[in-house]
Amino acid sequence: MGTPRETREEQAETVIDRLEEAYPDSTISLRYSNRLELLIAVILSAQCTDERVNKETEHLFEKYDGAEDYANAPQEELAEDLSSITYYNSKAEYIRTSCELILEEHDGEVPDTMDELTELSGVGRKTANVVLQHGHDVVEGIVVDTHVQRLSRRLGLTEEQYPEQIEQDLMTIVPEGYWQQFTHLCIDHGRATCSAQNPDCSDCVLADICPSEKGDSEIDLASGDAW
Q1: Which of 145, 188, 214, 220 is an active site residue?
Q2: Model confidence pLDDT, tens digit, residues 13-64
Q3: Is residue 17 annotated as part of the catalytic site, yes or no?
């Protein structure tokens, strides 16, 4: 197994430094042109790849223009437009209901606070953080998706299991100026090297500081299971 830095703060700093060098152009991969499109894309991305979402929204954003179009769309029609997306029926309902509330409570504009965003259907803290960061330039937390969750546990940055608790741990050890970028770096590394089922530890820039490294470690700290 790799040998982590003495403190979690030092471990986080080293992780960021190395991943920044490995992925210098790391950024959000969802495509959108305004805050509502961003919100919809993030809702659709739950348990679905960004690549699939981008392919679906390419035509979706041409057909629907603004919250009123989505709010007034028949459920069956909107669901059909999302049919290649996982849980498309539920997500169609989330989008319709969220847009209704945006029209009724926010004059058709995507709200800019955590509390208001998480009142929308299908919007939890992770989704709200993405919209705040990339739609409103407000960074008040760390987006914890499946990649961040997996890497943070494997690298010994947290022992928590659930996203909100992991976020709280990370916010104490990741410098605030990196709260947004930390997520993108983890996503890129998770896709390229540190996959869920078969991470490529032999070609990992973090292997020597990773307590889950397969060369010696018997346990995947992300799952708690044996390799």
Answers
A1: 145
A2: 999 999 999 999 999 999 999 999 999 999 999 999 999 999 999 999 999 9
A3: no
Instruction: Tell me which DSSP letter residue 201 carries.
Output: G
Q: Which 8-state DSSP code applies to residue 220?
A: E
The answer to whether residue 55 is catalytic is no
Domain count, the chain: 2
Instruction: Tell me if 96 is assigned to some domain.
Output: yes
Using one digit for the tens of pLDDT, what is the confidence trace for 130-171? 999 999 999 999 999 999 999 999 999 999 999 999 999 999
Residue 56 contacts residue 82 (beta carbons within 8 Å) = yes
Q: Which tokens go with 92?
A: 């169609």
**Quick one: how far is CA 161 from the chain centroid?**
16
Question: According to the 3-state scheme, what is the secondary structure of 51-66?
Answer: HHHHHHHHHHHHHCCC
